[in-house]
Amino acid sequence: MTETSFDRKMLEALVCPMTQATLTYDAEKQELVSKSANVAFPIRNGIPVMLMDEARELD
Predict the structure, then answer these.
(1) Which of 28-44 are b and which e, b meaning 16 or more Cβ less than 10 Å from the residue's Cβ?
(2) pLDDT digits (tens, 9 = 90+) for 30-57
(3) Cα(9)–Cα(5) distance, rounded to whole angstroms?
């Protein structure tokens, strides 16, 4: 798996750790977005980093 690839099947199993809401995948930014929590979680080397300390607040 390359840095720019992400297993979309994994997206079905992941939820926001804050709100338990579903996430959307932003391929351009390599992030999983939680619209309910207004944050984005980075994907590094194909692995989602689902830690609130690593999340970026959305504008």
Answers:
(1) eebbbbbeebebbbbbe
(2) 999 999 999 999 999 989 999 999 999 9
(3) 12
